[in-house]
């Protein structure tokens, strides 16, 4: 990463941690809840969310759910357990292989073709979120999101799958900032050092699937989204035009994923357009 961009993306870790812990505490408690649940994959994003949620609410109010598929890495589960042990939080392990395989056994036969990795990955992400929301109801707890700003902008996630949550403390942190904050709060070294992966199939890594590194993405996204440079101005700073245009196009094409479902306006007051109140209205 270029030194000037590395400096611009540097976070004040103690201050940012305090702000995000306050955000979690406030947004959970003001709508009448005291506890949270979240998916803990063994990756850096969910690990950071675990440390922030525990700092905000205390270990007894935080529950991690590990949801491996049969091809998931054992190392991911081991890393998740290291976080659970370090924080002393409760956890549940739910193997999603059965329901996912049962669905595709039937659907592949009906469609007379084998599902792509994309379809299988989306189904796994939604099976995990379905499980989380069931446990959310069982435990009277809100679901904490674990998607960072880089992933959300790139649309590198499944709508109503891993992108779904009741609140997301790390959604305004680029991946490089997630790494900084994770080191500050004490995320285990084994997680800090490994290649990011959604672990949806064997040998999957985020950067291999995206076709570029998170550092490259963060540099371009920061200058386009936060500094508001045009793609041409970013290219003039020495970046590859094809990569800049690819990333900008990807962000634009995935805008629909970041918006709530659009409602056709028929009345004088339409939900989300004219009928808009604060999240804790009436609580």
Distance between the termini: 45 Å
- Count of DSSP-assigned helices: 13
String of helices and strands = HHEHEHEHHEHHHHHHH
Number of strands: 4
Structural class: alpha/beta
State the assembly state of the protein chains: single chain
Strand content: 5-15%
Strand order of the largest sheet: 3-2-1-4
Largest sheet: 4 strands, parallel
Low-confidence stretches: none
What would you call the shape? globular
Average per-residue pLDDT, rounded, comes to 95
Pfam families: NAD_synthase
Subunit structure: Homodimer.
Protein name: NH(3)-dependent NAD(+) synthetase
Enzyme class: ligase
Please, could you describe this protein's structure?
It contains 13 helices and 4 strands. With 283 residues, it is an alpha/beta fold. α2 crosses α3 and α2 packs across α8. The model has no long low-confidence stretch (mean pLDDT 95). Pathway: Cofactor biosynthesis; NAD(+) biosynthesis; NAD(+) from deamido-NAD(+) (ammonia route): step 1/1. Catalyzes the ATP-dependent amidation of deamido-NAD to form NAD. Uses ammonia as a nitrogen source. Pfam families: NAD_synthase (PF02540). This is NH(3)-dependent NAD(+) synthetase.
Key traits:
single chain, 283 residues, alpha/beta, four-stranded parallel beta sheet, 13 helices, 52% helix, EC 6.3.1.5, NAD, metal-binding, NH(3)-dependent NAD(+) synthetase
